[in-house]
Amino acid sequence: MEKQTVTIYDVAREAAVSMATVSRVVNGNPNVKPATRKKVLAVIERLDYRPNAVARGLASKRSTTVGVIIPDVTNIYFASLARGIDDIAMMYKYNIILTNSDDAGEQEVNVLNTLMAKQVDGVIFMGNHIDDKLRAEFKRAKAPVVLAGTVDPQGDTPSVNIDYAAAVEEAVTNLINRGHTKIALALGSLSQSINAEYRLTGYKRALNKAKLPYDDSLVYEAGYSYDAGTKLQPVIADSGATAVFVGDDEMAAGIINASVESGVKVPDDLEVITSNNTIITQITRPAITSITQPLYDIGAVAMRMLTKLMNDKELDEKTVTLPYGIVRRDSTKVED
Amino acid sequence: MEKQTVTIYDVAREAAVSMATVSRVVNGNPNVKPATRKKVLAVIERLDYRPNAVARGLASKRSTTVGVIIPDVTNIYFASLARGIDDIAMMYKYNIILTNSDDAGEQEVNVLNTLMAKQVDGVIFMGNHIDDKLRAEFKRAKAPVVLAGTVDPQGDTPSVNIDYAAAVEEAVTNLINRGHTKIALALGSLSQSINAEYRLTGYKRALNKAKLPYDDSLVYEAGYSYDAGTKLQPVIADSGATAVFVGDDEMAAGIINASVESGVKVPDDLEVITSNNTIITQITRPAITSITQPLYDIGAVAMRMLTKLMNDKELDEKTVTLPYGIVRRDSTKVED
DNA sequence: TATTTTCATGAAAGCGATTTCAAATGCTTT
DNA sequence: AAAGCATTTGAAATCGCTTTCATGAAAATA
């Protein structure tokens, strides 16, 4: 019971024109006499003809499809970027092939290769770390790649981000200005350059500016999860830190809840600032002060850049840095 | 600077065999002499040949791509399903074209059509409501469609779900057993059949069984958001309800926080049960008792069904119902 | 009216694979 | 050594569209 499929040839025959002409009307080519166009359109309507995008892709060498590599769709941070990407892609008539990489290097390379095999016109890559292997693949790929919410310190790959270092620096400086001298930094893996080379840098810069000593033992490398947060909290409490900057909202929620439950008052005994301003920051009590990032826009801008590259246009700037903000909630004291 | 692309023809020439033979080794066809295979493989390696999936798709009429229609990737509920879908898809060597529909009927139809144009081998549909228009499109599509976490009361479309009605019935019955007689029901739009035809039904069944009267004014149709929850809370408080079943976790969080802040004690003055067991249910204080659903599995099973359909196999059952559970947290009192 | 230009159209050559069918090769078996 | 069978291979058609190039028709210019 294979469903009959109508091809451009059928339309051409019924409309008594050539396939070329049908192709022209389908693609909005202006070199078609209005009367002819109308006739063809009528046949298309009548036969319910839908162009086969695969055949078109083969013939034109453009698939109007872009690959999106994401660590994990269930991660709200990356999902938000993905939403921005998809909206803009749709606006430009591109479709998205979405694949989860779990942040695993090997998987990222595999996925990139299957995407290239599918002849995607471009790729948006999101991930926490970019190594040489990956860079080499990007270079080898015959479609442009743009990084979204993903830093590559060594980057010649176009990318869209906020200035993570500056954001952390500002947040930590705020803390310092309120008199804190022992400020903890709770991150995910330091093997990820966003942590090792940006957040940590911002943290150090803030300390430096204030002439505060950098203390290694106040930097925690835990997982990014609620449970990691609850487990880390007593450690932070023991360290004598009176404030903490956290790299992930769920983790921050874990720290907050564990603090409250163990009698550590937030923000009186411990001020907390987190990074991603997800809904979680509004739900905890106290609600969490956070860096704000234009997540949707990061994705959207990345996709816009990619469309330019896919059309062989020049990029105004290879690395775009979007503005961040800091929204004060109840996990920090009021500024003097 | 178009990058050179090596085709099956190049490989054939270099290996001094025909394209057919190369095709055979690439596709693991056993009818190739080991020596030949080895020779071809060597050339493939040397030239770094990657088969063009688009050409293959055209010739074989299978794209090894499936379309996934999702209301919104940033919705953790659907994103979880999507993760299950993608993992299984990858296992079976399929790729996912992911598109957001915003639950808008028109957009859903559009998206389905572009997916069909891209010659996807199958489609997984997630959404909150299925109308006749959509059903007609499903029928018209020449690729199989499976619903994931999406009910169609009128369904001849294969689907994977939990028994929403039974879950709500059980949750509400628990509440009733603890002596509540005025139980509110906070849902999203009643135009969505999951609410109107399943959750509401379960709610009524529970009341019925307990010979409690059904009171229209205890059923609230609000949006599914944190803010909707905070706004709804005073209304619920005024109604005199002593317990509430909520259709969405963020909304439940809003109700909980607003209650606590207005002096309504949870669970003493108001017991709350929610639906999706997302991380949010662990983060609020009190944490929220919830129905648990195997979200990942719903997606995974749906994708498994789809692979069967795409290979013209029979389905054991057209409608699969996965088990749900209820996890007690602190927003409900302890069972006697 | 004759000559250019411009416009509209069609023929046919790809795009890079799969797949069918027939031919060639290699082994067994008499 | 001949016949028969199974195994390997290749030639060529095909998938459904885009795109180039040539051509005829129509419009503009001289």
TrEMBL record, chains A, B:
Keywords: Activator, DNA-binding, Repressor, Transcription, Transcription regulation. Residues 6-60 form the HTH lacI-type domain. InterPro entries: CcpA, HTH_LacI, LacI/GalR-like_sensor, Lambda_DNA-bd_dom_sf, Peripla_BP_I. SUPFAM superfamilies: lambda repressor-like DNA-binding domains (SSF47413), Periplasmic binding protein-like I (SSF53822). Global transcriptional regulator of carbon catabolite repression (CCR) and carbon catabolite activation (CCA), which ensures optimal energy usage under diverse conditions. This is Catabolite control protein A. It comes from Lactiplantibacillus modestisalitolerans. The lineage of its organism: Bacteria, Bacillati, Bacillota, Bacilli, Lactobacillales. The gene is ccpA.
